[in-house]
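Lab notebook, bench 4. Still working through the backlog of constructs that have no structural model yet. Next entry is a single chain of 162 residues. Request: give me the structure tokens for it.
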Amino acid sequence: MKIDPAFVLHETEHWRLNHHQSSALPGYLMLGAKAPIHSLADMPEAALAELGGLLAKTQRVMEAQLKPKWLYISRFGHMPGFPLHFHFIPVYGWVEALFWQDERYRVLESFGTQQKATDGAELTLFIWREFGESPAPPSVQGPSVSEAIRRLRMALNTQDNT
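Model written out:
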């Protein structure tokens, strides 16, 4: 998949960090292998050596710049044509509030506790459906996607120089 350069935040020899191109949620990032590899077990040692530092650096920068309530880091990886990649999904307080206000997601309560609590799977589903697939995503509170990209790119480049 070709990634629009406007969405790319950072690159190393083996990895590319970009904003998710089809998500309206500011700061939803993807860290993908540049090689067409689908398994960590098949990655070259040098790529694996870069990975841990990139995961930590991305988390550190996202938490400092965007201040999400939670940050989910996940690998789903079963889509044909996509190399190994990780999702960085910021969950802001306002996103969680939108989840609780949307009655369509109350059916999920029957599968879990009856308390006002949710888990990462439910919020991830909400984010994917409402910010990624909806033709009319919710209004964003805080920085826009382009502002989040700018801030994260600058912070990542500043960290490289320190």
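Notes after review: Residues 23 and 132 are 4 Å apart (CA to CA). Helices lie at 45-66, 93-101, 120-133, 145-160. Flag for follow-up if needed.
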